[in-house]
Prior knowledge:
The protein is an alpha+beta fold. The protein has six helices and six strands, in the order H-H-H-H-E-E-E-E-H-H-E-E. Strands 1-2 form a two-stranded antiparallel ribbon. The chain has a two-stranded antiparallel sheet with strand order 3-4. It has a two-stranded antiparallel ribbon with strand order 5-6.
Amino acid sequence: MLVRSVGKDQRPWNKGMLIGQKKPLEPKHVWSIWVRLEIARSLRDLVIFNLAIDSKLRACDLVKLRFDDICLGAKVRHRATIVQKKTGRPVQFEITEQSRSSVEAWLPTLRTTGSRYLFPSRLHASPHISIRQYARLVHRWVESIGLALQLRFLKGSESMGNHDSNIVDACCVD
């Protein structure tokens, strides 16, 4: 095994960072973020947040959600099935009433863009928002409720969240 030595003037890149599984957001934090997004009337962010909580999908799968995945015509489905990029297995999840109402409020804006993705990118080179942009959103949400967040760089198929509540693969510190 090759080990890189650290000189006297160099500091290890991960010194002081928590390594391993991170502490998930508590229900009170999730509720706090949801209330702030509701008050701000941030439709897109509210839809992303609600679907992330409902679906527990990895970031790479969440940002690639399409209109047809969760809607049937003009109606939002009660259940959706998505094939995960990492495992290739289908995952079924329930879309709560809260999420359905936020998606229904987001649909008129989405239709004006003509995108088939639920979260279209403003850049023409990309059809949907990037995982990095999603990470920035999560960081902003967590900071808005007064928590510090230590995000790590994410590769394409890695999860933005723990396996219980998909919102943060990060260290939340009060």
